[in-house]
Write a structure and sequence with these properties.
The chain is α/β, with parallel strands linked by helices and about 290 residues long. It contains ten helices and four strands, in the order H-H-H-H-E-H-E-H-E-H-E-H-H-H.
């Protein structure tokens, strides 16, 4: 597949029938693999030949997805966007309300007695909503690095690992491009420097050259404006978004599950449900 071109070209305007056909195909993609980012839908659409692998093709997808959400054909929550969010303290109408909400969201700590500590790091904040179902299911911290994280962010993460009296496993997901690969190097280097006494196992999970070849991932030209491109010998760049969402979530699950004792997990889940019911009972009694 040829590298992604960002040059714009004048194209024949699509007919209403063609635009509707495109929308229907995009709906099928989102239904299969939601939640997804707009860029993930774009990459899947290029693989299936729905839109060209150009900036114009991306705009076609973005416009169509906006219309599909406004028309109610796909739920807004199926298109992930965690780059913008609201900060607000959680408050309650009364004690009974607080107990009901606690019962609804109560979770047993999964890793309290685990022999290992696990974190998942992701380069792109926009993709946190795509893999969060996996990290939330297994009570694993999801660290959004946004490329090169600040020293404050790195120091906080390193301090947590320094407090853990057990091996720490860090699984990092980022773009295959000069800055994406170098950012992973910088994160690992800083964590080790700031937590010298911690046992840190760092692994860059995606995107790798092997994945690009095996999955025939869509590429784009490596940006010459990236100062690290002069020493880059990794060929065309590939965004993390190019990996289809189900495969990406599967990679995250595989990383986490290798540290999970399934028998203990089942015991915790049973205890969790029993305690959730107790909290619900306390909520009912508080209403009386």
């Amino acid at each position: 597949m040829s590298a992604l071109s960002y040059t714009s070209a004048k194209r024949r305007r699509a007919t209403k029938a063609e635009m509707e056909s495109r929308k229907s195909q995009l709906v099928s993609i989102v239904v299969e693999q939601q939640p997804m980012t707009v860029r993930q839908v774009f990459y899947q659409a290029t693989v299936r030949g729905i839109v060209p692998k150009t900036e114009n093709g991306y705009q076609m997808v973005a416009t169509a997805l906006a219309e599909l959400r406004r028309d109610g054909r796909i739920p807004f929550r199926w298109i992930a966007d965690h780059t913008r969010w609201m900060r607000r303290p959680r408050t309650y109408s009364n004690i009974a309300h607080a107990l009901r909400e606690t019962a609804k969201f109560y979770r047993r700590a999964l890793w309290d007695h685990s022999p290992s500590y696990v974190e998942v790091w992701i380069e792109k904040d926009a993709l946190t909503g795509v893999i969060m179902p996996m990290t939330e299911e297994f009570d694993v911290p999801l660290m959004s690095a946004k490329g090169y994280p600040s020293l404050t962010f790195l120091h906080s993460a390193a301090a947590q690992m320094a407090e853990e009296d057990r091996p720490c496993f860090v699984y990092q997901f980022g773009d295959h491009d000069p800055s994406g690969v170098d950012a992973a190097r910088a994160i690992e280097e800083n964590l080790r420097e700031m937590a010298p006494g911690a046992e840190i196992h760092f692994k860059r999970v995606a995107v790798t050259p092997e994945q690009i070849s095996e999955w025939n991932l869509p590429t784009r030209p490596t940006k010459t404006t990236d100062t690290r491109s002069k020493k880059w010998n990794g060929g065309d760049s590939v965004e993390l978004d190019a990996i289809d969402p189900d495969t990406l979530r599967g990679l995250v699950r595989d990383c986490i599950e290798r540290h999970v004792d399934k028998r203990k997990l089942e015991i915790i889940r049973v205890a969790e449900e029993s305690e959730r019911q107790q909290l619900a009972m306390f909520a009912r009694e508080a209403r009386q």
